[in-house]
Amino acid sequence: MEERENEGMIEAGAQQFIHEHLMTSALPSKEDFARMAALGFHTVIDLGTSRDSVSLPDEDTLVAAQGMNYLHLPVDFSAPTFEDYELLRDLLNALYPRKVWLHCAQNKRVSALMFLYNIIDRSMPISEARARLHLVWQPDETWQAFLDEALEKYVYQYI
């Protein structure tokens, strides 16, 4: 995997370097937002929901205080949708080349959606995208079914 310029600076767990303009992780600490700003991140996107066991209720304020944009796109962990993926993909494409930090509570939602993003939008081989996903977690039945349906919808019909 590529070198990360933030090595050792950001404390959030389950970090993944997607490309030079996109990093993902589990929930960052309050202190991480200042470090992200210092590293040139422009936007923080949170896919968590208010029902998550861990969250930062004032995350929008913490991020804005560092001069970054905050976007909250809650993805229901028990019911992901194609619209969740499409909205995130469109947002990431619109923000490029600005640096984005994308997170959820444990990086499970994010890593699953990045699995699709890597395949569909970055032309990454499925085996490589799957290996990156499995560095974070093995999707449960709900998420595996969603990913299988998404591959059928977005990829396999064109092969």
UniProtKB/TrEMBL annotation:
Per the database record, which ranges form the DSP-PTPase phosphatase fused to NAD+ Kinase domain?
Answer: 24-135
Origin: domain of life = Bacteria
What InterPro entries does the record point to? Answer: Prot-tyrosine_phosphatase-like, PTP-NADK
Q: Pfam families given for it? A: PTP-NADK (PF22741)
Its recorded name reads DSP-PTPase phosphatase fused to NAD+ Kinase domain-containing protein
Species per Swiss-Prot/TrEMBL record: Nitratifractor salsuginis (strain DSM 16511 / JCM 12458 / E9I37-1)
Q: What is the lineage of its organism?
A: Bacteria, Pseudomonadati, Campylobacterota, Epsilonproteobacteria, Campylobacterales
